[in-house]
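Researcher: Batch entry, complex prediction.
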Amino acid sequence: MTTPTWWQRNRLALLSLLLIGPLALLSASFRLINVYLPWTYHVAHTDASGTVRLAQTYRYWSELSTAIEVTARVESATQVTQIGKVRAAPGSVLWQVTLTLAADPKAMLDVCTMWLADDAGRQYGTQAGKVGDMFDPTWLPDCVPKGAEGPRYDIVQEQVVQSDAPRPPTWTAVALVAVPEGVTPTHVILAYQEPDYIDLRIN
Amino acid sequence: MKLRTGELVVLGVDGSTVVTSPLDRAISKNGVFVVIRVRWTPSLKPQGLDVVEVMSASGRLYGDEQAVQSRCNPAQTGIPLTCQLVFEMPPSEVPGATLLVPSELSGVTGGDLEAHIALGATDESVKAWTARTDPIDLPGPKAGTTP
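Model: Structure tokens for the complex:
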């Protein structure tokens, strides 16, 4: 009887390497998963005409999948001194941006995010840089009309609920943003879920 | 100090055994509250100072939830935010301690730390802080160019 060769003695271990090798590589590459999952806003929707259409399907509040289709254009972008009790912090100015949106009244669009950007790519959000009202009502953008929000997901009841009045086919969304003096915002961004966002030119 | 994500200026370091805020009052029986007054100005996107820690000379880390809330957010790009950071520490750990500010302020530690700022606390200053019983008031973050 001949002595088994090294390859024969270790064939099972060598075969298992075909499985273990890729698993080891995968576990060592965990950080790369962030590169492939859509956790950042990096898919821009723009249009030279100034009217941008966004069609997107995403998980709403991680509970249900929803498909939206919305068209947006800039109605106005102006500097304002004060809205209610809200003023800009010293050294900054307030910009109020109004968008006209159009969508099927059955689409869930009550949760959105808006921010301004300048040509250098710096972003300016709705939450900071404002003073005067401890309960700042402009902390978040007005994504849908009050009282006519349309369908929205109630996380307590864990179901979709309808507003008292149906949302009209077109409405306005408003964001109030504090921007440092001397900076002119040139873009307004509207987004519902990563990675897609609408990029509209202002100024 | 210029970080990748903004500019941080340490305006002063103080300490006492009592701190008060609009909602809280805390007394440290065996430790001392180190209060670091800073001015933070994000440069790329709105981002507050959410994850900052103090590392003692012995290498221990202090931070996370404290007895008194001391937030440094929300902060707007290009608009300075003045705030107080509070860390309750054993007095023996304060001399030689360093403030650690990560460049990516997303709450994930172990990333590329960009700022190590020596607090300049000496044995003498810590002794005075430990003996102090008058409170340091923490009014909360204030936005704008007025200090």
